[in-house]
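Posting for a labmate who doesn't have an account.
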Amino acid sequence: MAELDAQGLKCPLPVLRARKALRDVAPGEALTILATDPAAPRDFEAFCEQTGHPLVSCVEDTGVYTIILRRKS
């Protein structure tokens, strides 16, 4: 599973970096993103709705969001 550490980055950088990272992920495979921006859950939900990549999960733990996307087939 591919990972992207976007901790410390503010909107829109986590989404832009994830978009770029997804290019290197095979269709159907997952990308895990770590982010600290409080807007990240909303931003990634909107990104997934716009692009069709499924949002698998979004969990917050002590200010760090772990967001898992699956590249659409």
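Reply:
Got it, the structure tokens are right above this. The mean pLDDT is 98.
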